[in-house]
Amino acid sequence: MSVRVIPRLDIKGPNLVKGVHMEGLRVLGKPEQFARHYYESGADELLYMDVVASLYGRNSLLDLIERTAREVFIPLTVGGGIRSVADIRRVLRAGADKVAINTEAVRRPEFICEAAHVFGSSTIVVSIEAIRQSDGRYLAYTDCGREWTGLDAVDWAVKAAELGAGELLVSSVDRDGTGKGFDVELTRQIARLVSVPVIASGGAGQLEHVCEVVDRGSADAVGLASLLHYDFVRSGAPSGHATTPKTQEGNLEFVRRQTAWSAIRSVPLAEVKQCLWNSGVDCRLN
Questions:
Q1: Is residue 167 annotated as part of the catalytic site, yes or no?
Q2: Is 271 assigned a catalytic role?
Q3: Among the options 10, 44, 212, 220, which is catalytic?
Q4: Distance of CA 13 to the CA centre of its chain
Q5: Exposed, middle or buried: residue 62 (CB in 10 Å: 0-12, 13-18, 19+)?
Q6: Which fold has domain 4-278?
Q7: Which of 144-148, 192-196, 259-263 ranks highest by mean pLDDT?
């Protein structure tokens, strides 16, 4: 199966946001505009994550999903605040192809079985937010890395796959937004123990990081945010983005000037695909 490149769009309210370690979120623009750009650039899938869903206890992206589904014709996975079969049904009816579940799966593991039975395993992605400990273990968290679940992340990944998850989205909270590269060891440990696809997320700062997590980490797909988002912003985001807010949050000029992003050598999505292809990785070129 071809390795997939999946832009990850973290969403707060109506805006695409990005932070570091899943905190300190800054608004980058309207998610549907980024989604359309990535679709036209050859993305294999898209991932929408409602990052404040835990706060409100529900996913608030239905309108956005409907708008995106009318213009983007690649698989769309939606996560955040999905806690019942009814929630999944609403998201799928709005136009999503798959759902990512975390908090409710941890609280009630049988939810994975229920969801897979009703909608099929291929529709169910279990999202795992992992933080590396000083002894080398990885612990699983929810709520953007704020709440420890009491679970070992690798053990939980194996159990989630056994319960019926069709894919695992493995996010390193430590690496998220840093540009220091994926946690290859985390991805490798999980990928060698499960028979379902593993999507690596968190930390990509240059092309080499993507090839590394596929080669050494055995990732089946890569979820990319900063690496792609900052390229789109710096290269000139399309009209319609809010560039004159009252504060620096959401100010694209501020993002373009930020020296903090110097560790992230952002690139267009097409270059990611070409790099993988040149490294001998089977992927879909646009």
A1: no
A2: no
A3: 10
A4: 17
A5: middle
A6: TIM Barrel (3.20.20)
A7: 192-196
